Amino acid sequence: MKNEKNHKKLERLKKNANLTEIESELLDERSKGKTIKELSQEKNRSELLIRNLINNAVAKIQDKNGLLPEKFKEFSEKLIARFSLDISIEEVKKRILS
Amino acid sequence: MKYSREKLFDNIDATAKLLQLESKEVAKVALKQLSLFSQKPETILDNINRTSNLLQIETKEFIQSAIQHPQLFYQKPKTIVQKVRIIQYYKQVQNKKSDEIVFLFSSDNVLYGKILNYLVKKSDGLKRAIDKKEFIKYLENKNKVYNFEIPKNEVAQGFIQFAKKFSKEHFGKQIFLFKILKR
What we know:
Chain A is mainly alpha-helical and 98 residues long. In chain A, 76% of the residues lie in helices and 0% in strands. The relative contact order of chain A is 0.12.
């Protein structure tokens, strides 16, 4: 019962965050307890890529729900300043979360 | 492993210096390929040198390709080269000019699948493309064994293994037989 409720909650969060098919699939599998290594083997992709995709999916959900850490904004501001990038904070966020 | 923001930014500067690029340019690429922030600059350079050596192209030329396709900065040299060779083999099977270096990032199985798809289409005289789902149905309906003659190449065995596995998984038997031409 509790699992079903959590699953519905996750589905709602995923839907709102506009996750890609692979991000959504990986979050599902991860929430069922599969390890990064197992997912990497199943999808024939590197562990680094799988980890990045999952982190990205979580960040998208956080962003959509106003939970993205303040550090994220700070990171974007400093990045733009340090490398004189002519892009906005929103753009940095969009690129990182794309 | 956790990195401080400064460490991530320093990595960009160090990578730019090693690759003889502007930090700004590397930072822009890093926004498309986030691992550039955390990968060791020396490892990135080493991978680039190894890949360009294996592909026998200039390092600078490879770096320019990597700026266009940032995945090239983090994929292992062996992985990049294997995919290039499969694409070249696909061209060779089609009797097209096959020495051009093209970077694609689909899995090896997807690339091998394209070759198999091409061979079936050619053998049956099909003009239109068939996607993977259609392809399996098509082969089921055909219910025949294909005999293919394919050119010799370092990835030919890998392709044959893929085709055998594909056949076994979807049809429970071998429906593709291969003869590798020596020329």
